[in-house]
Amino acid sequence: MTDPMILSDPANDIDSLRQPLIAGSEKVQQQIIPQLAELGNEGLDVLMEFLLKRRENPATWIDGKAYQVLYNSDAPQAKEFLRSCFPEGIVPLKSECGINYNSLQQLLAVQDFQAADRVTIEKMCELSGPTAVQRKWLYFTEVENTSAVDLQTINNLWLVHSEGKFGFSVQREIWLSLGKNWENFWPKIGWKAGNTWTRYPNEFTWDLSAPKGHLPLSNQLRGVRVFASLLSHPAWLKNPEK
């Protein structure tokens, strides 16, 4: 049901959407962003203004939604705005190991979750060194020694570009809420049904209709010991912005 604050007629004046976009709840903002996207250049201008005002704060998934509209627009002013104000993307691509996360941000910005999932495991292996890159999967000890800053970057990219549904921290929150019970955890995130594991790739859901915590899969992380190391990593005990 559309929030009563929102005027659904696309002919409504831009100013009637600007204020609730800035001051409204996430639910209101989520509904307004696509309305602005349909209003052409003037709507894009409001989204650019919105992102500029919020640039000094850590990006949320609402920022991600606004960014995605601009990123996927053919409008020259949107492309120039992103080039000048957000050259790396909406999420700062911090790395202690010199890893480039541009490709991951670009895939997530266009909601190509399956390709983003493949890149995520590639980056995780890259963080662990050339042997892991060649092997294409991780030992639990390698996960334990992974840079917290880099894990937070990967996690923030997934969170911001998935309406807060996907990410390691989301999976950790669900895992903890279930008392770290793996048998309850797997079906909760859609990785298992009864005694049957979800088969990669076709049985997984590669869009936002998936259960919360469904992605990133990073298929090689399904082993309990490796995945437990990831969800227990010190990265999740720290402020991601520090």
From TrEMBL:
Question: Mind telling me which InterPro entries this protein's record contains?
Answer: ARM-type_fold, GUN4-like, GUN4-like_sf, GUN4_N
Q: Which residues form the GUN4-like domain?
A: 95-234
Which intervals hold domain GUN4 N-terminal ARM-like repeat?
5-87
Per its UniProt record, what Pfam families does this chain match?
GUN4, GUN4_N
Q: Give the matching Gene3D superfamilies.
A: 1.25.40.620, Gun4-like
- This protein's source sits in the domain of life called Bacteria
Family from the record = Belongs to the CpcE/RpcE/PecE family.
Tell me the protein's name: GUN4 domain-containing protein
**What is the species of this protein?**
Nostoc cf. commune SO-36
